[in-house]
Design a protein that fits this description.
Length: 349
């Protein structure tokens, strides 16, 4: 899966064991802010009927691939098409000019291949699930040869070693359909999806500070939309990054947004992931969840994203600052309508 700040790869064991302690086998679980769909993918593998939601197009594509699409239906077809796509000669155009010449996210030789393969995918007119698999493969292949420190806010001053390697497509790790039934990928604002999705457990991993996922991963948004947007700045961001702001990225708006979203949920159990770098304190999150009579909290020491270890860089890729700390505390809040037993969790006062 793609490099992603806030990824829960290292916390999957704790997240799955927590949900497993409060969720009946095969029940419906809503992943409300699905991001890379890493959690939804793991939940599908554990046999849950997953509903994965995200309002960004690239994240919805990842969820369609990893949560909604089933291996037995699409794997062989997708593999054949990916083999054909990988043999296409490169073709320079808008994408190569914007992200390889005006900026330096990809070496031009790879940018030309990305462009040719994306044009070919668009020309296929494939069914949504198949198209999502192909686009996910292309995103992940491009991610393996990018020239960034992990975010698309800036790029390296000199080409990263991986950027000089030839791009290669791989079939994503698709899952078979769970016995519980088909999983679904949704593309809506969190409050809307919360109100429209009935489930037993709602898992929430919202943005927690000023950093916009759309701004951090604008190239993936453009690669999926394939809309040749107007861009700005050294990083050639989409201009709609300025307009498509989430209430969860505002210090004054995140609390009310989370409170409305929690109130809209149609689930007897909420599992909410947050950490001590967020705009909301532990106490503020507990207050938002306090309508549920049973509250517990797991505190997990957690290494910060790899970019923190690399350091702070400006838009030219030059190191300009030092990082304050390399670890934080990840919280898993469990709010339930009924008592739950969670080993190692503190009862919230």
């Amino acid at each position: 899966m793609i490099k992603y700040i806030g990824s829960k790869r290292a916390l999957l064991t704790q997240i799955l064991s927590t949900i497993g302690a409060v969720a009946p086998e095969g029940c419906a679980v809503l992943d409300l802010f699905s991001g890379t769909a890493r959690v939804g993918h793991a939940l599908k593998g554990a046999g849950y009927r997953v509903l994965a939601n995200d309002h960004n197009a690239y994240a919805h594509t990842l969820a369609t691939c990893y949560v909604q699409a089933d291996a037995d239906r699409w794997a062989e077809t997708a593999r054949r098409i990916l083999d054909d796509l990988g043999r296409l000669p490169g073709r320079a155009g808008w994408f190569t000019q914007t992200y390889c010449e005006e900026s330096r996210f990809f070496h031009p030789s790879n940018g030309e291949k990305i462009e040719a393969m994306r044009d070919a995918i668009a020309a296929l007119g494939a069914e949504p699930e198949l198209e999502a698999i192909l686009l996910t493969s292309l995103m992940e292949a491009a991610d393996r040869v990018d020239s960034t420190a992990g975010l698309q806010m800036a790029y390296m001053k000199s080409w990263a070693v991986r950027a000089l390697k030839p791009i290669a497509l791989r079939l994503p790790a698709l899952m078979p359909r769970p016995a519980a039934g088909a999983c679904r990928a949704l593309c809506a604002e969190a409050e809307v999806a919360a109100a429209e999705s009935e489930c037993h457990v709602a898992y929430l991993d919202p943005p927690y500070n000023q950093h916009s996922y759309l701004g951090n991963y604008h190239v993936w948004e453009t690669l999926v939309r394939w809309d040749k947007p107007e861009t700005y700045g050294i990083a050639r961001k989409r201009t709609d990054v300025r307009a498509r702001r989430s209430a969860f990225n505002g210090k004054g708006s995140i609390g009310p947004a989370l409170r409305r979203t929690v109130a809209a949920l149609r689930a007897p159990v909420i599992v909410l992931s947050f950490n001590d770098e967020g705009y909301l304190s532990r106490e503020a999150v507990l207050d938002i969840l306090s309508a549920r009579p049973h509250l517990r909290v797991l505190e997990i020491p957690y290494e910060r994203y790899v970019g923190a270890k690399i350091g702070i860089h400006n838009l030219k890729g030059e190191k300009v600052g030092t990082v304050g700390r390399l670890t934080n505390t990840e919280y898993l809040f469990v709010a339930s309508d009924h008592p739950v037993a969670l080993p190692g969790a503190a009862v919230a006062a």
